[in-house]
Amino acid sequence: MKTAVITGGASGIGRALARELSLRGVAVTVADLDETAGRQVAAECGLAFAPLDVCDAAAVAELYGRVMREHGRLDFVFNNAGIAIGGAAEELTLAHWEKAVDVNLRGVVHGVHAAYPIMLEQGSGHIVNTASLAGLVPAPFMLPYTTTKHAVVGLSLALRAEAAPRGVRVSVVCPGFTDTPLLDHANPGLPETALGNRAREAAVRTQGRLYPVEALARDVLRGVARNRALIVAPASGRAAWRGMRLSPAAAVRAATLAVRRLRVSGPDKSDK
Ligand SMILES: NC(=O)c1ccc[n+]([C@@H]2O[C@H](COP(=O)([O-])OP(=O)(O)OC[C@H]3O[C@@H](n4cnc5c(N)ncnc54)[C@H](O)[C@@H]3O)[C@@H](O)[C@H]2O)c1
Hints:
One of its GO terms (molecular function) is oxidoreductase activity. The protein has 272 residues and is of the alpha/beta class.
């Protein structure tokens, strides 16, 4: 039986992936900071749960080592846990930046650092890192978030090249705005910002309709089965990414229009 560990598996995208993988007969370990929700998901789907803070490198290494010892194999690792950080650049404190780096970037680094040697030794395995469309295109009003997600894309593509000759696969998932609780609790434990309370509304105004999480989970698993380097969904996200590749300057102009529409920062002085 194949095995998978999903960080951030207690909610949203991680939970949908856990459900879908369990239906496909994979022995999933849901790992999350939120013990109550994590145990509930695990009980619903007949999966294992492990309390985990991805910021704790030793705990991440211990978990992957334990799954390997208990099952004798580690097939899939979804480094998916993440937090939303939102606000105009001038409102964000260093604490916003530090927390984004700790969870969204260091959390993925810890997962890769722990899982990759195990998979090298095994000669197989697939690391799937969750970045974001904000890791491919300019995403205003979430600077620490877009910064960490660009880093996760870079890490994943470079590791993919290094890992391929050794039999290990690496993919990176870049979803557009997806309908999950993430959009209702931006800036967790951090000072509030004007946009932080309006993340869901801002996402709907930017993208139109939020993408259903079950559809995203199916897209992700299709991309993983096909060993795609980048898994970008929904179609509007792929169009934005194509626009960015054709003309980064035009992509920034489109982002500037979105900034004007959201009107959360100071007066617009560009006409003067
Ligand atoms: N929802 C979106 O619109 C969207 C878009 C693009 C990318 N993403 C990314 O998808 C991933 C999953 O997000 P989601 O939308 O499912 O959010 P979510 O809030 O529904 O789920 C995230 C889960 O991660 C857990 N988590 C947070 N910090 C953790 C930590 N330090 N250690 C362990 N677990 C932790 C939370 O408890 C939660 O269960 C994130 O990396 C997010 O950045 C989400």
